[in-house]
Structure formats: structure tokens, C-alpha cells
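Checklist before submission:
- one chain only
- standard amino acids only
- sequence pasted in full

Submission:
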Amino acid sequence: MLEALVAVAKLLLAVLAFVLVGWLGARDKRIGGVLLTFPLLNGIAMLTGADPIGIAGTVYLVVAWNCILFLLAIYRYEWLPPLPVNWGEEAKIIARSLFWVALWSVGATALAAFRDDLSSASWLFFLQLAFAVFYIACCWSAPSSRAFLTFAAMWLNRQGLLRVVAFILVFVALSAIAYSGKDARWVGWASALPLPGIFALAMLSATQAKADLLSVADTVLLGPLLVIPFNWLLAHAIIHLRSEQAGAITEIATVIVFWALAAALVFLFLPLFARWRDSLKRGSASRRPIP
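Returned file contents:
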């Protein structure tokens, strides 16, 4: 019974993540970039009964691959894959999502297979930190000036409903495949699949200009700096709760508290960081000599 409730909760949370990432990504690209890898599904995976440490070990590696995939998709979505010019938005969203999921599966499967040799929360965190600092220093873009979309304009219409239905169908199919076994390695593999982010990014690529997507890329690499400590801490918290036989309700409450804290970090501190980085960029631009 608990397993069925967890499966339903995972689906509902995945749909919620897809809707919110798509909307917030269209409104605030920098927040949207971090939310592409927000650990909603990682938290649900910890409740499956599989080894939390094993799940987290796979997530550490795969989330770094997720960011590389997102950067490739943002910069090269026109030919990743190449699509006919006359295709509609929905067709492009579905085609790109399926293609990116296929690319993700290749890299993520290879990393999961070598998890025991490669996975280490500490060195992966600092490697990701160095990569993020380098990218932000060299490639930070100007803030997007596009007007905010309302939630109703994006989702409460026929196109929005079709996109949600397409997401649900793909999510259910992939979850059935991934959870055919109970190996923590592959449960972690499935929980690290950024399907909400992939669908949301595909939607943004089909509906907005490429220049606007570069603001999403600004903060994509910050995602693992949230996900890695989130999973390390949550895995150890779940293990402690199980040793104390705290029960499923306490575990679920703990996961919700972790989500709330992670979301607070994103929504409270990321706008401050983005404004600081924008001010540095403007200052640097103003000091350049006029040719």
C-alpha cells in the first residue's frame, strides 16, 4: 500500500515540478536554471525502501551529467535533434524531450554502472563548484527583459493540457521500466532523471527566443551544489529514522522539510546572487574603453 502511495505521490510531484519549472523558468530564468535539477524525485526515491546511501551515490554522479546535458540542449537545441521547420510547438517539445531522454540514458547508465568506482559526494561537489565558478565568471549573460507570463496563459488552455498529458505518459512509461528491479543503483538512476526539467526546457526552447534561454544556462551548474548535499544529508537522516523505527509518516515529513529548506535556499538567496553578478557584469562593461 505504501509503495502505491509513493508511486502516486511521485507522479503528482513530478507533474507539479514540470508545471512550476516551466512557468518559473519563463518568468525568472535564473531560478528556472536551478530548478531544472531540483531534488523532488530524489526525495521520493528515498522512501522506496531501497538503500538510501546507494541511491544517493548514483544521484551524485548523474546530476552532474544532467547539467552537461542541459547546457548542450540550451546551446544546441536547433540540431539536437534537427527537426523540420514546419513542425508545430507540441511536436518539437515531444521530439526534443524524447531525444534528450535518450541522450541522458546513455550517459546516466554508464555512470550508474561505474558508480562504486566514481561516486564521492565531497570530490564531486568541489569539482562541480569549480566548474560552476568558471562558467559563471566567463559566460554569465545579460538578464532577460521578456515580460512575465501568467500561470493561466501558460497552462490553463488546450496547449498546456496537452503538454501535461504528454509529460505524464512519458513519465509513467519510464518509471515502469526503471522500477522493474529494486537495485538501489537503478532506483537512484531513475530518481535522477530530470524529466520535469527536460520537458520544461523543451517547452521553453519551442516557445521562446534562444537569447532568453541563455539566462537559464547561467545557473544550471548551481543545481548539483544543492542536490549533492541534499541527498547526502537526507540519506543519512532516513537511515537514522529507520534505525529508530520512526515509521513511514515521519520519513515523509522529513523529506518534505528537506524540500522546503532546499526551496528556501533557491528562492531567498539565488535572486541576491544574480543581482550581485549582474552588477559586476554591468560594472565590467562600463569600464571597457570605447573603441
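Reviewer check: Residues 2-280 form one domain.
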